């Protein structure tokens, strides 16, 4: 864990706000482990999300619902040890905050205490208002998450674009303002029309971070393994692939297998 390095200025929730104020876009990516978090942090991303997408990406589950609070804390504490500069935000997992505000506060406090992360993220608007207020009152920064909220997938039934209808768009706008009014430091907007993202981002003071939400969010986030092409099955249209690591890693491993079989590895220099 970085105790204090005077050469590196830490990103805080205030830094994220200043970026919006300056009109500079905010870059965010997910990370679930120490090694990848180090790479993402060193590359200059301002916000690292320990997403409950770890349920899909790390554990192979079909949805984000199965991941537990203990598992999120394991991922988050690993990420925190790899990060010197970025703001580390952790998803409160399904079932750790929906019951009531005491449960929500207890879960948020466990994440802060046991992982060393800097903030939590929660899916939903008006329905979870009291829980967010209680967590904020304890001094824990909270990020909202509206639009496609994967923890409610069985309520909606699909991962299709959200808030295309006027009523749902209006609820999202109201929720976004409510989140700002109670003191959230930012809000993720997932898979909603670009025009709605523009409206919300312009009318909010706090930054919006989009995923599949068009170019007008104040920042962008992607799942690291998707944008690196490690996970080569997931290809929604909002995803841009910046590398094809699945192919690169497969070739490297196949080469290693060949070398072992051919008695080429290890050679004399690689032996004692
Ligand atoms: N690997 C990974 N990447 C993510 O971006 C991600 C996760 N996992 N898990 C949690 C949520 C779920 N998210 C998702 C999940 C599915 C679609 C998707 O399948 N979209 C398809 C079809 C949607 C439909 O119309 O039914 C698409 O083509 O956009 C998009 C975002 C984003 N998050
Ligand atoms: C896609 C992002 C916003 C997320 O919530 C996650 O990775 O869990
Ligand atoms: Mg999530």
UniProtKB/TrEMBL annotation:
Indicate which residues the UniProt annotation says bind Mg(2+).
52, 91, 123
The EC number of this protein is 2.1.2.11
For this protein, the record's HAMAP family field holds:
PanB
CC annotations in GO: cytoplasm
Encoding gene (name): panB
Which terms under GO biological process does the entry name? methylation; pantothenate biosynthetic process
> What is the species listed in this Swiss-Prot or TrEMBL entry?
Spirosoma endbachense
Q: How is the cofactor bound?
A: Binds 1 Mg(2+) ion per subunit.
| Keywords annotated in UniProt | Cytoplasm, Magnesium, Metal-binding, Methyltransferase, Pantothenate biosynthesis, Transferase
Tell me, how does this one assemble? Answer: Homodecamer; pentamer of dimers.
Q: What is its main location?
A: cytoplasm
Q: Would you tell me the protein name for this molecule?
A: 3-methyl-2-oxobutanoate hydroxymethyltransferase
Query: Family assignment?
Result: Belongs to the PanB family.
Binding site residues for 3-methyl-2-oxobutanoate = 52-53, 91, 121
Pathway assigned to this chain's UniProt record: Cofactor biosynthesis; (R)-pantothenate biosynthesis; (R)-pantoate from 3-methyl-2-oxobutanoate: step 1/2
Give the main EC class: transferase
Its domain of life reads Bacteria
Query: Per UniProt, what is one Pfam family of this protein?
Result: Pantoate_transf
Q: Where in the cell is it found?
A: Cytoplasm
One Gene Ontology term of the molecular function aspect: magnesium ion binding
Q: Which reaction does it catalyse?
A: (6R)-5,10-methylene-5,6,7,8-tetrahydrofolate + 3-methyl-2-oxobutanoate + H2O = 2-dehydropantoate + (6S)-5,6,7,8-tetrahydrofolate
Query: InterPro entries per the record?
Result: Pantoate_hydroxy_MeTrfase (IPR003700), Pyrv/PenolPyrv_kinase-like_dom (IPR015813), Pyrv_kinase-like_dom_sf (IPR040442)
Q: What does this protein do?
A: Catalyzes the reversible reaction in which hydroxymethyl group from 5,10-methylenetetrahydrofolate is transferred onto alpha-ketoisovalerate to form ketopantoate.
What cofactors does the UniProt entry give for this protein?
Mg(2+)
């Amino acid at each position: 864990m970085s105790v204090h390095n005077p050469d590196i200025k830490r990103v805080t929730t205030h830094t994220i706000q200043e970026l919006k104020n300056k009109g500079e876009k905010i870059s965010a990516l997910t990370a679930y482990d120490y090694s990848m978090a180090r790479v993402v942090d060193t590359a200059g991303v301002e916000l690292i999300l320990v997403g409950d997408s770890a349920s899909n990406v790390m554990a192979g589950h079909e949805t984000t619902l199965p991941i537990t609070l203990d598992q999120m804390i394991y991922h988050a504490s690993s990420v925190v040890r790899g990060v010197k500069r970025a703001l580390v935000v952790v998803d409160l997992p399904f079932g750790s905050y929906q019951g009531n505000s005491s449960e929500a506060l207890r879960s948020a406090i466990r994440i802060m205490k046991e992982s060393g992360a800097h903030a939590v993220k929660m899916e939903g608007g008006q329905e979870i208002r009291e829980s967010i207020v209680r967590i904020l009152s304890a001094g824990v920064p909270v990020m909202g998450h509206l639009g496609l909220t994967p923890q409610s997938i069985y309520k909606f039934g699909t991962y299709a674009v959200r808030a295309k209808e006027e009523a749902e768009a209006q609820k999202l706008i109201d929720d976004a303002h409510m989140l700002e009014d109670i003191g959230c430091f930012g809000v993720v907007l997932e898979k909603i029309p670009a025009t709605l993202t523009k409206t919300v981002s312009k009318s909010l003071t706090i930054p919006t971070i989009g995923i599949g939400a068009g170019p007008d969010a104040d920042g962008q986030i992607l799942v690291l393994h998707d944008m690196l092409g490690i996970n080569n099955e997931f290809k929604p249209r909002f995803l841009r692939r910046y590398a094809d690591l699945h192919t690169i890693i497969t070739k490297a491993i196949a080469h290693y297998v060949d070398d072992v079989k051919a008695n080429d590895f290890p050679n004399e220099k690689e032996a004692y």
